[in-house]
TrEMBL record:
Name this protein carries in UniProt: Alpha/beta hydrolase
UniProt KW Hydrolase keyword: yes
Alphabetical keyword list: Hydrolase
Signal peptide: none
Length: 273
């Protein structure tokens, strides 16, 4: 895997460090770019080698990054809890600033997992000219009881079992990463969070993948996308939980390849610096 690097962005008047790494397989220097958006407790390292496998198999470039508060990016300040609009801020403020800092001007494919899938949807709705297409794994459109229940179980595992120690391998500030995500998802005000109306303007190709054994969401999430975004392709995956790229990686890569096929036939010539 390629080494990680850091970019600086200005976010709400503060300089924020963004951990990231590029993946450029041999011969793919001018291929489409896939930007990977991690889950609520994810990071560059927590993707492990999946982005490399996808990029090498499909012959595309990849850009993996850790959102502020995660991985080796600038931690969230203890006195700055996430708000109900935290995914909107990531989609409307952080991701545009990061892409600009990286000098990326060509439309990109967004590959988003869980919260990252929701952020990808919000970004595509706000910046349609910047997105070639979306591949979404277990995205959230609204809050379900099953989601809240398992996030409560995650809090118990963090407080009383080994989840904190396991996460500490991937985050410079594990408290920032876990508490930011867990506290807002369990906040009473967040039960009303819903982005169904926000995504109705999306017109790019969309592939939405949902594990049939997902403990954090049901098929209603991706079916809601298909109801609002014309032409959305749905892929329910048996024998798969909340992380299709870990549980069924070959199926995810194959389906992503079918989605990207038109782009691969007409790959843009410009590469980001």
């Amino acid at each position: 895997m390629s080494d990680t690097d850091f970019a600086l962005i200005d976010w709400r008047g503060k300089s924020v460090r963004i951990e990231h790494r590029f993946i450029v397989p041999p011969g793919a220097e001018a291929a489409p770019l896939v930007v990977f958006l991690h889950e609520g407790l994810g990071s560059v390292a927590m993707w492990k080698d999946f982005p490399d496998r996808l990029c090498e198999t499909l012959g595309v470039r990849g850009l993996v990054y850790s959102r502020p508060g995660y991985g080796r990016s600038t931690p969230r300040a203890a006195d700055s809890p996430l708000g109900v609009d935290f995914m909107h801020r990531q989609a409307h403020e952080v991701l545009p600033a990061f892409l600009a800092a990286m000098g990326i001007t060509q439309p990109v494919w967004l590959f988003g997992h869980s919260d990252g899938g929701s952020i990808a949807l919000l970004f595509a709705a706000r910046h349609p000219q910047a997105v070639a297409g979306l591949v979404l794994l277990a995205p959230h459109l609204f809050v379900e009881d099953v989601t809240v229940h398992h996030i409560e179980l995650a809090r118990q595992a963090y407080d009383h079992a080994d989840l904190r120690a396991r996460l500490a391998r991937y985050h410079d500030d594990v408290v920032s990463a876990f508490r930011g995500w867990n506290d807002i998802w369990l906040a009473p005000a967040f039960r009303a969070w819903n982005i169904e109306a926000d995504i109705e303007g999306i017109r790019c190709p969309v592939l939405a993948i949902q594990g049939l054994d997902d403990e954090y969401g049901t098929l209603a999430q991706i079916e809601g996308i298909a109801a609002r975004v014309p032409g959305t392709q749905l892929l329910p995956v048996p024998g798969c939980g909340h992380s299709p790229h870990r549980d069924q990686p070959e199926q995810v890569i194959e389906a992503t390849g079918r989605m990207l096929a038109p782009s691969l036939r007409g790959a843009p010539a410009a590469a980001p610096r």
